[in-house]
Amino acid sequence: MATVVRLCFEAGAKKVKVFDRPVNDPRRCYVQSGIADAARQFGATVDYVDERKFRDMSIKGNVLKTWPLYTEVFEADKVINVPIAKHHGLAKLTLSMKNWMGIMGGTRNRIHQRIDESLVDISMTVKPTLTILDAVRILTANGPQGGSLNDVKKLNTVIAGIDQVAVDSFGQRSSA
Fold first, then answer.
1. How many C-beta atoms lie closer than 10 Å to residue 76's C-beta?
2. Cα–Cα distance for residue pair 69/11, rounded to 1 Å
3. Could you tell me if 65 and 124 are in contact, meaning their C-beta atoms sit under 8 angstroms apart?
4. Which of 81, 89, 101, 119 lies at a 20 to 30 A Cα distance from 127?
5. For residues 114 and 20, what is the distance between their CA atoms, to the nearest angstrom?
6. How far is CA 73 from CA 12, 79, 124, 142, in A?
7. pTM for this entry
């Protein structure tokens, strides 16, 4: 995260904002993961998702027609999606397109019955400027939150691109 923030400022960004909507308490997650310190080290603002900033948006997908999405993503000049490759009990693997669940408000578990199609619908709505897939260490089982150190595999890989489908496709092959 520190490298991404630093490179954003070097590329001319006036402001860099880092946020996520993890399943667990974001303050604890930001500290335990090191994201807060890494982002702040180079001057980024670390924000916590504000529930008041979700707005029903037209998606016009095959499954999702509207959904409350986080407005700050659509107000930003540039959006960089930085997912971590890991196992997911329902989706099997979570990469960049699955990471967009972090900008979904409402009752996110409602998409579980048709998660694949729902994630495609969201991904057609959100167009990141850049996707950087962190596959340095991946969780290979019991994800996305569980597992043990025995479930971690070191790949020492980072995949970056402007096409999130291509990044996920390459990431899936690298993670297999």
1. 13
2. 28
3. no
4. 89
5. 23
6. 19, 7, 14, 30
7. 0.91
